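2024-03-11 09:14:02 DEBUG pipeline.ingest accepted 1 chain
2024-03-11 09:14:02 DEBUG pipeline.ingest length=254
2024-03-11 09:14:03 DEBUG pipeline.predict start
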Amino acid sequence: MKILSWNVNGLRAIYKKGFLDWLSAEEPDVLCIQEARVTEDQLPDDLKQVGSYQLYLNPAERKGYSGVALYTKTQPEDLRKGFGVEKFDREGRVIAADYGAFVLFGVYFPNGAASAERLQYKLDFYESLLEHVNGLRTQGRKIIICGDVNTAHKEIDLVQPEKNEDKSGFLPEERAWIDKLLASGYADTFRMFNSEPEQYTWWNFKLRARQRNLGWRIDYFFVSDDLRDNMKSAFILPDVMGSDHCPVGIDIAV
């Protein structure tokens, strides 16, 4: 099963940049989208009905902001929008699809750079989501979490780490949450297969950073440890254009 995740920086914007051709060529079983920035009534029909995919959308209450979506060929046994915490759910940051063999969470994690209040909101989101997925694990469920985490974990995961230690996205408390996640029994799937530096998923548009590969790896697939043996590959697709992020993905046997 091939599952992809992509912060598209606007679903309608990426639609005008060859998104449907890319999706047709790539043919994932599931595609999780972050920063959709759209409500269903704003979507062109071409984006609502795409081949054999079913589209699920969880928009934010605020127009043109945040939002996640899911294109899936396999009908989930259950699908939920959000995870039951109102202050987070109103921003349209989570979509959870239960496929029986696992529960897939497509997540657009908050950015903490705007203010101290937003940084705290981000950290609170981190903790609440981990509590929620760990609750499912106590029920015997296997978990996949993917999306734009808005944090680089290790120094290898961004350019010039020493210059970014005091910036949201690489703060010690943000990175410590990823440590906590992994210690709770999850794996960073990309690092299961690739230990090389300069493997990035986001580049700053303003600095023309992509041309020079001056980026950050802030988009992830995490799986609960009971899915480690099912992992066949994990990868980044840096040549896919159209957003300031590129897609990331996994192949998993289920």
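2024-03-11 09:14:41 DEBUG pipeline.report The domain at 2-252 is CATH 3.60.10.10 (Deoxyribonuclease I; Chain A).
2024-03-11 09:14:41 DEBUG pipeline.predict end
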